[in-house]
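User: Here's a structure from my thesis project, written as structure tokens. My advisor, Dr. K., wants to see whether a designed sequence matches the one we expressed. Can you design one independently, without my sequence as a hint?
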């Protein structure tokens, strides 16, 4: 959404108008801006310290200071000397010397300070003034637009989120990076924690012994994509993993863009009780005494730390805000989005661009909040044109960003859905579902056997549930040799495939 263009609002002018109405100038530190620029021209050693704080000319209040700073950065990036003469020459080359105030102004800057000794402190104050100006600017725009009867309130909040993110990007780029020594110490501390722990989990409980064994639990900051065709059980799978995480004490946020909260709750009851899902969704519940058993299950589930938002077509901005709220109020360890292609937009974007932005945004949420984000993805009908109907990475071709952004890409495949025999080279007798790990940034790929109970819409490690689940499938199996290329084609490898329908909905 281009708010400024749509509503013809100039946020900078609004800021100045509001500031003048209040009898105040916008927050600024002109003297420190001058000190920074003067220091850089007399003592170039300060530039590295400055760039640890900010590297964007927009931080400066005066336009003349912005162009001078840009000239200095350009000289630095091309490894040229930085002094009064070279900065003047660079400004002349860009035809910006007059905007900068001329040579006389540059000379005046160099006479204000003798070294760059305090440049980092000065830079932090200048950055804080910029952040205050941006806060006034965004707030002014929001106030003006909120009074406009034609404005969309949700788009206003999206605009606010975008503008705040721009400021955060500038601030984040200037934050001090962790040194290699610090990183080594953090790694050693983590290894020690794992050594001292009685649990094999290093992340959030997946709800499955086999997946815990392979992944060590869902890891913080990881973006996990689970893809499948309709009917494979995508929502059932994440419902199971949501319950597993919540039972182990990890709070979970669930963005349900497809099902209502009531529908999800009904599925959890079927998962945890002896009732089939159709018994809970049709009239004429069998016996009153059975209802008491249902209530017992509900009471056991009631206290689980699960938080669901079932509003349709949420944008990635709205999902980010909800995730931050869940993290702040409930300290969630995992966020589930069901499913990626249903997230909203302003309707003007190509589906590839839209899905790419959503994928990028979900990975950013995982990193920002230090949580696991699981995004479900609907696969194209191209899957069903293959001999085995088995999904592979190239079936995410509608947006290569999904594959690139994801730390793990997994697929759910049930051959019985297509009337095909279970592949006994991959699955043992008590499993009917292939959980295909097609990409895993931290480990191996392959297939893990699971069992799916259609009546209860529930996945488990195996049909016979006991402590020896390894009798079903010992763990990760290699992808069958009968489909060596099908699982690992890149998007580029398939560029010659012209029979794909770009209008295939949702892909």
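Assistant: Designed independently from the structure alone:
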């Amino acid at each position: 959404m281009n708010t400024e263009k749509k509503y013809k609002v100039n946020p900078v002018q609004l800021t100045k108008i509001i500031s003048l109405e209040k009898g105040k100038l916008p927050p600024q530190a002109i003297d420190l801006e001058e000190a920074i620029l003067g220091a850089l021209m007399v003592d170039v050693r300060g530039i590295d310290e400055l760039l640890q704080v900010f590297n964007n000319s927009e931080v400066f209040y005066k336009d003349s200071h912005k162009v001078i700073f840009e000239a200095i950065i350009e000289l630095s990036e091309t490894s040229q000397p930085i002094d009064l003469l070279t900065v003047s020459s660079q400004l002349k080359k860009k035809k910006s010397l007059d905007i900068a105030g001329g040579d006389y102004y540059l000379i005046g800057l160099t006479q204000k300070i003798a070294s760059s000794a305090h440049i980092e402190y000065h830079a932090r104050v200048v950055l804080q003034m910029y952040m205050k100006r941006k806060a006034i600017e965004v707030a002014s725009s929001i106030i003006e637009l909120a009074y406009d009867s034609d404005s969309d309130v949700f788009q206003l909040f999206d605009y606010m989120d975008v503008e705040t993110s721009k400021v955060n990007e500038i601030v984040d780029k200037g934050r001090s990076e962790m040194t290699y020594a610090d990183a080594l110490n953090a790694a050693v501390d983590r290894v020690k924690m794992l050594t001292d722990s009685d649990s094999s989990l290093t992340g959030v409980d997946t709800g499955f012994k086999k997946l815990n064994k392979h992944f060590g639990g869902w890891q913080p900051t990881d973006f996990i994509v689970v893809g499948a065709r309709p009917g494979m059980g995508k929502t059932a799978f994440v419902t199971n993993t949501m319950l597993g995480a919540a039972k182990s004490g990890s709070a979970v946020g669930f963005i349900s863009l497809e099902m209502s909260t009531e529908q999800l709750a009904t599925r959890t009851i079927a998962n945890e009780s002896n009732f089939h899902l159709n018994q809970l969704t049709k009239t004429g519940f069998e016996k009153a005494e059975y209802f008491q058993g249902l209530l017992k299950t509900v009471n056991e589930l009631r206290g689980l730390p699960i938080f669901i938002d079932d509003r349709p077509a949420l944008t990635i901005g709205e999902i980010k805000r909800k995730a931050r709220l869940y993290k702040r109020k409930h300290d969630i360890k995992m966020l589930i989005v069901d499913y990626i292609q249903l997230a909203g937009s302003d309707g003007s974007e190509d589906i590839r661009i839209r899905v790419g932005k959503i994928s990028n945004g979900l990975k950013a949420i995982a990193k920002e909040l230090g949580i696991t984000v699981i995004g479900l993805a609907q696969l194209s009908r191209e899957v069903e044109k293959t001999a085995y109907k088995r999904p592979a990475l190239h079936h995410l071709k509608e947006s290569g960003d999904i594959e690139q952004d994801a730390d793990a890409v997994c697929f759910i495949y049930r051959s019985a859905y297509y009337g095909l025999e279970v592949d006994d080279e991959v699955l043992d007798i008590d499993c009917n579902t292939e959980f295909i790990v097609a990409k895993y940034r931290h480990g191996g790929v392959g297939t893990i056997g699971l069992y799916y109970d259609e009546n209860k819409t529930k996945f488990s490690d195996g049909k016979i549930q006991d402590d020896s689940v390894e009798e079903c499938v010992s763990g990760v199996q290699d992808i069958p040799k009968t489909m060596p290329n099908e699982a690992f084609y890149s998007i580029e490898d398939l560029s010659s495939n012209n029979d794909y329908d770009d209008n295939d909905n949702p892909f």
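When you compare it with your expressed construct, this may help: Residues 1-9, 466-507 have pLDDT under 50 and may be disordered.
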